[in-house]
Amino acid sequence: MTGYITEKIAVFFSLVKFEHTLFALPFALTGFFMGVNSDQGEFSLKLLVLIILAMVFARNSAMGFNRWADRITDAKNPRTASREIPSSRLSAPGVMVFVLINSLLFVVVAGMINNLTLILSIPALVILLGYSYLKRFTALSHYGVGLALGIAPSAAYISVTGELAAAPLILSLTVFFWSGSFDILYSVADREFDIAEGLHSIPASVGIKKALVISAAGHIPVPILLWLLYSECSYFGVLYIAGTLIFCLLLIYQHTIVKSNDLSRLNQAFFTSNGLASVIFAILAIADIYLLNP
Asked: Contact at 8 Å (CB) between 125 and 54?
């Protein structure tokens, strides 16, 4: 019995791709410490734990619902046919129960933070769950992913201060362009399948070569926004600049290793490069806050 439970937990971890939390969580933590450093904020370990829990429950809800919504097309796609629902390791009703439980826990935790986060938890859930259906209607679906990840820094800041400010909004826009554009890059692998199934994506609409150009162009606002954030926040200094440079260099790197005629390093560009970029940036940005403002 214990072995069965352990196995099921492992399958659910696989379902939500918990390692992908590295895309949004570092930026949420940056938003949290920016809020702590504001005039309205102060550090609270309890609040930090609640924010991390909210991120986990939100992530579980979004990924679980995505897998449930895509279960039929996933079964047809050779790249995704081994996912948990198509391979029958998890049932579709079981995954929906998982989504509902995590959605409820997300709202409950949001209510434990403050009234504003409770109110905003509902539209946040609409975004987190709704983006899964965008590929059925628009080639701009990649920026639904960007919006879902981009709300994290502002949400964390609001959790600390009870209000939104320019700085976390700039960081949210940075994440929006960063993640929306790398989703275009990742989706080139499914171009032929998307066309065959009538699904919408930029690679399916304009081809792989143009999609790679659009993805790269979509990352151009990132260094501009990070510079604006530096200008907005007096507590950022040399470590933040170093983090920004590393972040941008890793963005450039991922575009140099993916070619229209060679997608063999796509996972390296998507997972390794972006995961490293977010973690390194967050560590250096947060360190800068505390080194300059002990």
From this structure: no
Cβ-contact 289, 37 below 8 angstroms = yes
Vertex 205, ends 67 and 268: CA angle to 5°? Answer: 55
- Identify the sign of the CA torsion 93, 201, 17, 149: negative
Which residues face 279 on adjacent strands? none
Residue 156 sits in a domain whose CATH number is: 1.10.357.140
Q: What are the start-end ranges of the E strands in the chain?
A: none
> Do the beta carbons of residue 169 and residue 154 sit within 8 Å?
yes
Q: How many domains does the structure of the chain reveal?
A: 1
Q: Give residue 243's domain range.
A: 2-292
Contact between 41 and 289 under an 8 Å Cβ cutoff? The reply is no
Grouped pLDDT means (10 residues each) for the chain, 294 residues: 62 67 86 90 91 92 91 88 86 92 96 93 93 88 91 94 94 96 88 89 92 93 97 92 95 85 71 84 92 61
State the residue for tokens 């971890």: 13
Structure token digits, residue 142? 């990649």
Contact 31, 156 (CB under 8 A): yes
Cα separation, 162 vs 58, in Å, equals 19
Q: Enter the DSSP assignment of 237.
A: -
pTM above 0.85, yes or no: yes
Q: Give the tokens for residue 42.
A: 């102060």
Neighbours of 272 (CB within 10 A): 15
CA 126 to chain centre: 15
Q: Using an 8 Å Cβ cutoff, are 281 and 229 in contact?
A: no
Closest among 50, 49, 81 to 67, alpha carbons compared: 81
